[in-house]
Amino acid sequence: MFSAQLITRQAHTLHRLVISMDSVIWVRQGHKTVTSGEREWRIAAGSLLIAPRGCVGNVTNTPPVQGPYQALALGFPLALIQEAATAASAPPRPPAAKPLDWASLRPDAELLAAIERACATQQRPDASARLQWLRQAELLELLALAGVRFATTPLSLPEQLWQHLSTDPAQPWTLAQAAAHFACSPSTLRRKLAAGGSAFSDILREVRLERGLGLLQTTQQPIGLIAHEVGFASASRFASAFRARYGFLPSVLRDK
Fold first, then answer.
1. Is residue 213 within 8 Å of 246, Cβ to Cβ?
2. Do the strands 22-29 and 12-18 form a parallel or antiparallel pair, or are they unpaired?
3. Cβ atoms 239, 223 nearer than 8 A
């Protein structure tokens, strides 16, 4: 599981945000609005946004009248979801035929306490892997009891590639390197990705921009350093690609 504190003082809309990992976002201050097709979800302060992997939508983060927008994002790897589902007392969810949709949830005190415990345990250097797993499994089971169960279906090839490239976005990845990881030829990997409507270069760019977005939201690193860490040759190239992808410049996510 990963957790990240999101803070921004300027309202902004992320266009066509793709959720690459099953996630829960706890809005603490301000509110979040998600639009996908003709549907809209408004998540007020104190509520959770449920964001299953594969969801795509326009996401607007709006600060309150005074103070910044604040949210806590938690992501669950598929392996953790599968293990927790096997051990859970709640009946298993049948495999989803299609990605689950966005949803909002008003959490009770027990669920919020479990979120805080899982995050605190993850940040403790002396916490054992077993304790971290138990805290995360507890959180997933409480979500299941509240009606939220993430799909346990295997990752698709594009999702597997996304996960592999995410291990080091700054690396100068090539199609041949990725194909070697999947034990196939570059032409075979290209053909399989094309059959699903995707391409290696597009996935690599998405991975780099998503990591850049995360660093902008959760750190105060200079934009130039972030650009380098996610594989862009310069801050200007990163800014141009970021604006083309999300609809605004990276500087919007920096305090003025």
1. yes
2. unpaired
3. yes
In tens, the pLDDT along 197-222 reads 999 999 999 999 999 999 999 898 99
Indicate yes or no: pTM above 0.85.
yes
pLDDT of residue 91: 54
Beta strand residue intervals within the chain, DSSP E: 2-8, 12-18, 22-29, 31-36, 39-43, 48-51, 56-62, 69-76, 103-105
Q: Which residues contact 196 (CB under 8 A, 6 or more apart)?
A: 156, 157, 158
Q: Any idea what DSSP says for residue 158?
A: H
Judge residue 82's burial from the number of C-beta atoms within 10 Å of its C-beta, 0-12 exposed, 13-18 middle, 19 or more buried: middle
90 pLDDT above the threshold of 60: no
Parallel/antiparallel/unpaired status of strands 12-18 and 56-62: antiparallel
Pull the structure tokens for residue 178. Answer: 């990725």
For 105, 108, 164, 200, the CA distances from 175, given in Å and listed in that order, are 41, 47, 12, 7
